[in-house]
Amino acid sequence: MSTFCPNDFYAAAPEGDRGFEVEATRVRFGRGLLGETGAAAQSLGMTRAALFSDATVAKMPFTQHVRDSLGNAGVAFEEYNDISIEPTDRSFQRAIEFAKDGRFDGYISVGGGSTIDTAKAVNLYTTYPTANFADYVNAPIGGGNPIPGPLKPHIACPTTSGTGSECTGIVVFDFLEMKAKTGIAGRALKPSLGIIDPEVTSTLPAEIVACTAFDVLSHALESYTARPYSQRKQIPGQPRPLSQGANPFSDLSCLEALRIAGTYLIRAVHDANDAEARAQMMFAATLAGIGFGNAGVHLPHGMAYAVAGLAEHYHAPGYPGSAPLVPHGMAVIVNTPAVCRFTAASCPERHLVAANALGAKVCNAKNEDAGEVLAAHIIELMHATNMPNGLTGLGYTSSDLEALTNGAFPQKRLIANAPLEVSREHVRSLFAGALRYWK
């Protein structure tokens, strides 16, 4: 099956963009590479760094390797561990208070997407302080102000195989006043370097591996099925946005990420000793991060912000604490099958290519089957890894559809990247279709 089917997929609209832009964070990938953090920090000019990790990761041997590496390189550092698993504007502000008088000339984050995103936000708000936290937050929820200039160097060391945050200029958090997740986006937020050491995933519980793995799958799938860059109007003289749409470069990394996920996701979840599977999913996370950093995600992520933000009772197994918590990858994947059934009409061939990459049987599938074939295979993966049975598995009912729609529809940056025009009623219908997937 062709990667770029149909042949006119990237044909430019009358006022569409005639080109796309490619950029990616510099990364190092390999076992034991966290021991290079100190030398890397020194090469970036760091003399006094803020080291971010959460309370659990701070106790791990690999975090001590980072400390030792910094010490050996002569880089002073101060630690911050008060990271929320799903960060909020308040948790960001606590971290900003820690850092604003610290005289730090660089940041190092060791952890999952929550930790990396916290470091990104702190770097932004301490480098370019603002009286109103919402100034940089994506419009229309916030002011959408552009980042004024470059930020301090940031080395991101992911410890979960999912977010790809080491590769993107995107920060995601829960805006408590809105009861919904939102974000901040800007190229300057991209870390200076990602150091990806697959050894760190060996201690992850199965539930966390599953949630982060489905985030990988969703990043890759949404970027591959996003509207093509050539259908987005480019304003002369203006930079292309991070969510520029699917393009030939993002296609390459996203399809490989989907192939890896289809091969190794279930193995990585069910066997902590399967070093190959967990390393492969770590690599897939980076590939998908590069892909969606150059294309952007769309509806499942936009809907996920409401799913996570409005949760009142559900707390995901395997995660610390007892407060309501729907991890990001879980909040995304419960929407994905319903969205696939909807977006397949935009380019069924492309949805079949994605299904094939994930391992679905597509040899006899027709274009009109594309959405169902892709959705059914994702549902199989969800069922095999103990993901919730749609929104009802998280405690939502049909009476919550209006509130979920109200929380998701303002996510214009994401919804506008979908391959079809999306109305408010469409979003409500997609939530209804995501309530339950199997008996």
Question: What are the main properties of this structure?
Answer:
439 residues; Rossmann fold; globular; 8 strands; alpha/beta; Dehydroquinate synthase-like, alpha domain; six-stranded parallel beta sheet; two-stranded antiparallel ribbon; 2 domains
What does this structure look like?
The protein has helices at 37-43, 61-72, 89-99, 113-127, 206-225, 248-270, 275-295, 299-309, 328-333, 336-343, 348-358, 370-384, 401-408, 412-415, 424-433, and strands at 26-29, 48-52, 76-80, 106-111, 154-158, 170-175, 180-185, 193-196. The protein is an alpha/beta fold and 439 residues long. It has two domains: 32-196, Rossmann fold (3-Layer(aba) Sandwich), CATH 3.40.50; 204-433, Dehydroquinate synthase-like, alpha domain (Up-down Bundle). The strands form two sheets. A six-stranded parallel sheet has the order 1-8-5-4-2-3, sandwiched between helices. Helix 1 (37-43) crosses helix 2, helix 6 (248-270) packs parallel to helix 11 and helix 8 (299-309) packs across helix 13. The model has no long low-confidence stretch (mean pLDDT 94).
